[in-house]
Amino acid sequence: MEENNTVNVPLDREELHITRNANPDTTVDADVDTFGEDETIVIPLTQEKVKIDKETVVTGEVNIDKTTSIENQEVSENVRREVIDVDGDQELLKEDRTEY
Question: pTM higher than 0.85 for the full model?
Answer without folding.
Answer: no
